[in-house]
Amino acid sequence: MAKDPRVTRIEDLPGPKSKGELEEMKMPYEEYCKKIFDVGNEHIKPNALKGIKWLSCTMYIFTPNSVVNLAELGAEVIKIEMPRMGDAMRHTSPFNECYLYPLHDTRPMTGTGLGFTNANNNKYFLTMDYHIPEMREHFYALVKKFDGLTELYRPGTMDKWKIGYRQLSEINPRFIYVWGGGFGYGPKMFGGSYDILGQAHAGLASVTGMHEYMGGHATKHTNWIIDWESGNIITSGIMAAIHWRRKTGLGTMLEMSQVQTPTRLLGYTTTMYGKFGIVRQRWGNWDTQLAVHGIILCGKSDFPDADNPQDKFDARYVMVSAFQDADFKELCAITGLKNLYEKYKSRNQRCEGEAQVEIYAALEKWAADKSRSQVAKILQDAGILAEPVRNDREVYESPHYRERGTVRWLDDPLFGDMLLHSGYSAGLMEKTPRRVNWHWRPVGADNKRIYRDKLGIPLSKIQEWYDKAWI
Amino acid sequence: MCDIIWCKKKKDGKDCDTINYLDPYYFWNWEGTIACAECGTVYYIHMINGFMYKGPEERPGEKPDTRPLYADKPYDGYSNYRPGVEGRTRPYQCMPRSWLTGTADMVKFSIRGRPVRGWRPQPKSAGLAGTFGFNWDIQKLSPEVWEEYQKKLAKGEVKDW
């Protein structure tokens, strides 16, 4: 900037400062995004959370996912597992036993199941029986060097073992302590939780699926969405705690009850009850606010000869959105249902329950002799928003996800060729992108690195602890 | 929470007084016989949704179907049998139940034809205290898979996607 504010210099004006910058500004926006995000080259860029060090006494999906968010953003995360057994989630595989080996040298016939996937990337794996008094001092030694810890035991368990927040904050006042579990303190303090319990307890399952008179039931999501989402909510709390510590120099404790998360996902449900006393209903594949805005069933599968039932029978659903008057008019015209348009010209008329039953039933009747891709194409060609409901294989084959790097192959340093999304499904960052270095490591794979290199424990001692199964 | 069998059987003139812990993951819906980790007394139990519907009833002479996950003796300073002690507590094989899952679906190559460690057993490769490096030297550790991979490469069976 010129010293005299009245002087205007060309270099102070907005706009390109060099030929390179000029070319960059001429670049179409899409090209510009491709250049700055540079999908596939994440590893040459800095890590956003480099320097943050976190301990993880976690199991299953919920709490590990809260920590893996940090690890994918570059924090150094040590997962402390039970000696020789590891996280119980390692032993939870999909039903056709998708295990990766080895789990641990003492157990050659046991592997880690793919249920462990995505919640443990980039972590270092330590084993320690931290509840025995002999290891307490070494646990404290780690706490002194680390920024925080996430744990999932029943409330007060770590406190009972003298490694709870009360004790650890004395040792390290900057320590951020996170408890994540079922109910937290309150009337159900000792209640454990699973994802399904969260979905049920907070009412999410009551509004998921079709209404009973349409053949539906209160439904849980197939995947563990409450586990995954609860973990994400914890991570946002951790980020805030880190920022708070930067300002005050003090650590804090976060207490996250898993069964709270679905209430967050329920949007206006509770507020509506508070205002009107209305208990929200299940509305399934349709929408209470918009019609048409739902998923319809077509008559023919796109892959009738496939072996996989998901392809053979289920490749029949299409999502359709034509809720604005003009779109609905076009939808009725293209499907030969002009009488429906005449009957339900306004959005309010279409959103009535009886109207939706009639409209969706008519659309499905129209689609009964067509395949999913035929229906999607007819609607898309008419300018209506429509997309096939894809399965895993189709997501894998989708150019959209490939180009953005959402689904990609990783040559895992220990386990070989693995298909993953994990960190890459969490959006793109220009300067400090998320990345996956490895999927997971065997139980205790980093024992020597941590006990010797971080804590200065002699190798003979490490061996002794190992023989006693303390580590 | 898991249920327990508190064994009160007399052994060598003393009460056995061992608490056998029944890990709920395996015992939630289960019927069969289980042996005390300390004295070997066989008990019959029938659990439904984690509730001890029947038992424990002693079944002398019967062969136990399984063993507890863990056991300890509160009147003996909480001396204990940790999981996986042969003949005492249930071993960790972690093989899913055959009636539920069928046989293990092991693989050596991913769907695009590149090596993946989805089979067992594999040679021991850890160092001190279970430590692993950051590289799977497939050529050294699993030469037969390496050879198979070379053949796949030559045949053009290895793809990018």
Notes on the structure:
With 471 residues, chain A is α/β, with parallel strands linked by helices. Chain A folds into three domains: 1-34, no CATH class; 53-263 and 417-467, Rossmann fold (3-Layer(aba) Sandwich); 293-397, 2-Layer Sandwich (formyl-coa transferase, domain 3). Chain A has helices spanning 19-26, 29-37, 62-72, 133-145, 157-160, 165-171, 195-201, 225-248, 261-265, 269-276, 309-312, 325-334, 338-343, 347-351, 353-366, 372-381, 392-397, 399-403, 447-451, 459-467; strands at residues 53-57, 76-81, 99-100, 112-113, 124-127, 148-151, 176-181, 253-257, 293-297, 317-321, 385-388, 408-412, 416-420. In chain A, the strands form four sheets. Chain A has a six-stranded parallel beta sheet, with helices on both faces. A three-stranded antiparallel beta sheet of chain A has the order 9-10-11, with helices on one face. In chain A, strand 1, helix 3 and strand 2 form a beta-alpha-beta unit. The radius of gyration of chain A is 27 Å and the shape is globular. Chain B folds into two domains: 3-93, no CATH class; 107-155, no CATH class. Chain B contains four helices and eleven strands. In chain B, the strands form four sheets. Chain B has a four-stranded antiparallel beta sheet with strand order 1-4-8-9. A three-stranded antiparallel beta sheet of chain B has the order 5-6-7, with no helix packed on it. The relative contact order of chain B is 0.12. Mean pLDDT of chain B is 86; it is low at 95-101. Chains A and B meet through strand 3, strand 12, strand 13, helix 19 and helix 20 of A and strand 11 of B.
